[in-house]
Amino acid sequence: MFKCLILLCVLRSGLHAGEVSLLPPAYPVSGDIRTHVRLDGIRPLELGDGHIYLTFGGDGLVSASADYNERSRNEVEVLSLEWEGERLRAEVEVTIGPDGARRGRAHFPTPPDVFRLEIEAERGLDWAGFPVNRDAFMPGWRKDTPQVAGRAVSGNYRGVWVSGDTETEVEGEVTGAWSVMAAENAWGAVGPAWVEAGDSELRLTAFLPREVRVEGIEASVELPLAEPVPIRSGGALRVSAAGVSGSGQSVGLVVQVRTERGWFARHQALRLGETAEEVTVPFQDFGSDWRPFAGGEIRAVRVGVYDGRGVGRVDVTVDELALISGDALPEEGPVTVVVRPDVVRSFNGTDEVPKGLFGFHDVGENNPRDPREGEPDYEEMMRILNPGSLRPLTHTGFGGKPLSEEKLARNMDLEQRDLSPPDQPFFRRAVAGNAVDQVIWTHTMDLWARPSWMDHGVEAVARDVEVFYRNLASRAWIPGDEHNVLRYFEVWNEPFMWGRHINMGFRLPPGAKEVEDETQYGYIPGKVGADAWSEIFRAAVRGAKSVNPHVQLGGPSVPDFGSHDYMDFRNYTMRMLEAVGDQLDFITEHHYGGNPLTIAAGYEVTRSAMMKLHGRMVPIFNTEANDLGASDAGKAAYNLADMLNLIRVNPDIAQVRALHACWNGYLRNRGEEHAYRLAAPLRGRMIDAVSSASRLTVVASHPQTGRVVLVGVDHGAGETEVRLPVPAGFRVAELTLLLSDAPLQEQMIRDVDGAGIPERAEGKTALVQVVPEVRGGYLRFDLSERSAFRVILEREGYEPSRVRTQQLMTLPVLFEELAADDRLSLQPGDGVPDIPERLFLRLVHTGAARLQIGDERIALPPGADRKSNAVVRDIEVPVTALRDGAELVAEGPANILSASWILEN
Fold first, then answer.
1. 58-72: pLDDT as tens digits
2. How far is residue 859's CA from residue 850's CA, in Å, rounded to a whole number?
3. Residue 366 has what pLDDT?
């Protein structure tokens, strides 16, 4: 058993001036009690038992939820509520609406139900036990059933279930837990936890699951402050802790602070061991390059544990916790952006901005709608947005009647084809959007439906898929058929959603075949789902390539590569790369929200995996991306940062990005539209450009003779001034600003179950052209927080004259887990070209490490910002490392995800 008992105390006599203790007796444990009760077996449907979860707080009912109703916001009316000592009596009426229908079918066919219930329950002294992953089949971002633990609750309920015109009497047992709610100026529990106080300490009992949970579970104590504590940017939070686990697994302490800008976290603030260790975390370290720490006052604090490895319960002692005032940090000066217009950047053989990174997931049955007032028609809108790629999606049953060999041969005969441009809205949109040669057509079945292979076998589905792609490929692109958009085929949209139908247990629909997979730890599949898709993809390749060698096939639209600290990648994506990576023409992935700086890191890890497994690399196509929980301003900043970082870090493999979604030829959101209008001219050869601060990501291009286009997006906190030295002989032809009103506080808040709750801010955007102000040879302008800009520089007859060539050499390094003082060789092996002019180590890692070259030690910057969000670090090192050899030396637990040399001339 992994026992977690967290003790927080502070030696009050040891406090120094400028410190604020956060522990009792200054801030006691709350007196408010939260009670979670689960009513099992309440819905006698053929689908299996249902469960209702009710959360009672000191002031009444806090929330209610029910299985099969994913974030349904069920309507609840409290008829009565009474506490008597340790007993709870309540009468409630819960209305459970049907799950949202898709194409005329419900995800789960639940009718709108009404439950009128009388509940009697008693709070005991025994622990309620560990939270069970009852909803493993459901995506975390769709769950609304809580993970709770604490003191046990038991009792009974009885009442009436009304479904349609039918009333049924129901009764059963109540189970659940009660815990201490956080209240102003008092500590309480968050998640599956219990908190108690001593004279000068807090005790947190954290009930983490005993089974593996990919998304992880958090259990914390929280203190909301009635009077916020003013902070200075140089301040810090100091914590000292020790911990012992019965299982021997080490757990990291998580500390979080909430300012007026939202929650900021530092995961793995320290690793817990038998001896207490102290760490002082500067407030700046609670932020990241993507979402830097911001705020002027601390409004709440959390301390706890977060883990998904099935560690259970743990004993931890935290013997100091205090806020420390500090001197104000020096104010940031202007950010300088330097463009070298004479220098083309060539990375690993690519010197062009990938035109498809500005594309759309094309939704709406691929038909345009009529323009609204003030809008251009859909073709003109596509010319303005200039996506460069499109990803339409077609639902199909696969299969079909096999075409005869004669018919296949006629289809493949260029002279017998109609080579004229199709008179179709989609084709016209593709032409207007510069995307005819980069349409990624996805053929799939219902995203939510149970796949037929589970009941009829993968072989039967594979036979149909082979016929389908054999027929389709005969009509696809061949050289000379330049108006043909059938060039890239993505095989099945999001097959990871099959995991919702694996390990369903008692929720298995009647007559369905049970599919179990002990390697699946949530709704993302493990071996069973990966093997099924791999077999289907092989069938698609057999069918298509047997007819048309020019068609390109890829997939499998996996979750973003770095999700859940790469656990999804190692458990699911890697299995498919191992199985069919030698046949993939391109790899596809999806990412929604999160940190754009980590997406490029995931691409590098995937590059290393493919090189290690198959000695090859293929393009990576993102076929869905967006930040669904963001405002206009948040979407604009997110999408621009995502696109620019892929261009900046890995333009050789990041070839397509598909915004979700372009609906019938138009974007739904002004922030998206402004971002794409701003970035549209960023085409042509990549020009060398650099920013002096990580908060500002910039990319420059040479789209035509005489012109340079520079686009930048700021993801820092507060306003900043940008200074651009105007290159000799150039004039500033345009300065366009995409201004937003402070969306930094936006984030996809994660509740303690891992579920994503969009917190929508009111951030708006405006796209404005301003008169350039050039003083002393510098273009100067101010950017509001999370804003962006475009500068166009012109010089008559200008063409770049030099090339900065960077060649990447991937090392056989993939998921190397190191303990303190472990060493990892970075020898490049055979085939090293001539010694370059400059040498960089491209590293994706977490934890602390240094580079050792002979007797020389080179400190490495942190490899992760918050939690486990690894980012790409390019560190310049002496070129002698190629000759003399180099080693990575861990200075604590470290995970080296991938490593490459970059040789520059």
1. 777 777 777 654 455
2. 5
3. 61
364 vs 834: CA distance, rounded Å: 53
In this model, does residue 601 exceed pLDDT 60? yes
Residue 314: which residues within 8 A CB-CB, separation 6 or more? 2, 3, 4, 5, 206, 208, 243, 245, 251, 272, 305
**Helix, strand, or coil (residue 365):** coil
Peptide bond into 25 cis (omega under 30): yes
| Maximum distance among all Cα pairs of the chain, rounded to whole angstroms | 92
Question: Does residue 895 have a pLDDT over 50?
Answer: yes
Token reading at 49: 């038992």
Q: Distance (Å, rounded) from C-alpha 95 to C-alpha 399?
A: 42
What mean pLDDT do residues 582-609 have?
95
Residues 462/538, Cβ–Cβ less than 8 Å:
yes
Residue 373 CB burial class (10 angstroms; 0-12, 13-18, ≥19): exposed
Gap between the Cα atoms of 753 and 134, Å rounded:
12
Task: Assign 611 to helix, strand or coil.
Answer: helix
Q: Cα–Cα distance between 756 and 743 in angstroms, integer?
A: 18
- 3-class DSSP state of 326: coil
Instruction: Show the tokens assigned to 485.
Output: 């958009």
466 near 542, Cβ under 8 Å? yes
Smallest Cα–Cα separation from 4: which of 206, 275, 189, 244? 206
Q: Which residue in this structure is represented by tokens 């009596």?
A: 89
Q: CB-based contacts of 268: which residues, under 8 Å, 6+ apart? A: 252, 253, 254, 867
pLDDT in tens, 88-136: 899 989 887 665 444 433 344 456 778 899 999 998 989 888 877 777 7
836: tokens are 């370059």
Half-sphere exposure of 806 (CA within 13 A, CB side): 26
CA dist 124 and 132 (Å) reads 20
Secondary structure class of 592 (helix, strand, coil): strand
Single out the residue of 508, 513, 514, 556 nearest to residue 531, CA to CA. 556
Beta bridge partners of 163: 113, 166
Q: Is the dihedral of CA 719, 720, 726, 730 positive or negative?
A: negative
458-473 vs 527-545: helix crossing angle, rounded to 10: 30
**Do the beta carbons of residue 573 and residue 558 sit within 8 Å?**
yes
Q: Measure the CA dihedral 689/691/694/695, to 10°.
A: -110
Instruction: Tell me the two tokens of residue 860.
Output: 């490495």
Q: How far apart are CA 664 and CA 429, in angstroms?
A: 10
Predicted pLDDT of residue 131: 73
pLDDT at 865: 62
670 Cβ neighbours under 8 A, 6+ residues apart: 632, 764, 765
Least confident range from 99-113, 196-210, 464-478, 851-865: namely 99-113
661 prior amide bond cis, ω within 30: yes
The per-residue DSSP string of 225-278 comes to EEEEEE--TT-EEEEEEEEE-TT----EEEEEEEETTEEEEEEEEEE--SS-EE
The CA-CA-CA angle for residues 451, 452, 453, to 5°, reads: 95
- Spell out the residues 6+ positions from residue 431 whose beta carbon is closer than 8 angstroms to its own: 421
